[in-house]
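LOG
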Amino acid sequence: MRPLLILRPQPGADRTAEKARRLGLSPFVHPLFAPETLDWPAPSAQDFDALLLTSANGVRCAGPALKAYRALPTYAVGQATAAALHAAGWDAVTAGDRDGSAIAARIALDGHRRVLHLAGTTVAPIDAGPLAITRIAVYHMAALPPDPALIAAATPGAILLVHSPRAGEQLGAQMPQSRRAALHLIAISPLALAACGDGWASAACPPRPDDDEMLALARALCEGQQQ
């Protein structure tokens, strides 16, 4: 079985690893980034009629000031984000499993217009439609120092999962060209794939930017090895 190296930050890395184990894969977690809390200006909850979180890290890094918005109708991208909100004291959260644009459409359909979005400094584009979205960064993803353990774990035939263009840039900077020809790359999007550079044994991305589809590609690589 090929080793599967998961490079995304925590807590997402552990979620991906657990799904990989259920598929019979052999995951190893080597995050290239970690969330770092930022000081942020907390506006009045009265200025908004909905709250949006697109990352569980946003919930964790917002800190005690997040509680000021508990009375607002709250929306989340992903079940992990919704679970983090429940853990923070939220009873009702509307969660979407697609992307920010899809949940923005749901917010608009529910009749809200003034939305507070607590997020990281880097956010995937959102089609706001009729919404007036105020985005405030409560964290940023800080690059971790190069880890010799990652290079050691990248044995011939290993599969590397890349979940963002920034992770691709970090991987490209850390992985020597001399090692790439024996490694397989699966990235979440064409942009993330391009950021990794060239020289890999194989490089692919799924038709949709989805963690499960990345793992399906990894499983297909492993099954091809066994045939």
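LOG (cont.) second protein
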Amino acid sequence: MNKLIPLSLLLTFSNTAFSEDAPDPADVTRLMSSLQVYVGTNSNDNDFAVQSIFNVGGSFNKDNQFLTMLSATVAEKESAEQSGYENGMDLREFRARWYQVFGTGYEWLPKAGYSLDYLDQSNDDSTSIDNIVAVGAISKIPVLSNWSLFPNVAVVKADVNNSAKRIGMDDGTGMQLNLFNSIYLGKKGTYMMINPQYSYLDFANVVTQDLLIETMIGTPLTDNKKWWLMGIYKETFSHVNNKGSHSSSSFKVSDDKRQFRIGVTYYF
């Protein structure tokens, strides 16, 4: 049964229901140590996937927080034989991140920070990208009592694997824009996030663009908010333009990038 939640009711819910020490995954600038485990599917080539994320957070003072993140995704591939992909369960993706957030003292922009990201996909033979390095900046902008925006912009460098370089594709550089939207749906902390992400990468002969739409919902499983149940769905629309061609096409759904995850998060 689908029913719309009246806007007037949503406006009565405030994220001030969280104490300063309570975990709040809807606030991406609140950095706390946690362990996350997800299971799900990775679209066509990854029929089953397990993802684990380990975060270690700390602070130098109340206005200077940091987070170190390590993430690994193990996935099973059952591709058609003619695809040439390696089948079976294997490590497909590894990610490391340093994230630091500062208090600004401004009500309209209370937090701002930066991140350093490294993504390794060299063991995933279904992608031409071996690894990605990104340097980004993020801020928090409260909109309503139950709604906050977190704009994020990053400079990206993508290293192409050797097999792709042999067909004339060199390493690429570009940018990534994110707009995290966090909406609280209840006084106990249940929330929804709708996060559009635009990526632009310029290679030697090709320009790629991706529009990823991530929808996330989470709800606490315990009163102290140490345990959370999470669900994530990702849909990606892609566009590839050959620099030697004047033709252009609209963004198309990328079936091989679709993801669904469900899992739990424990804060400690």
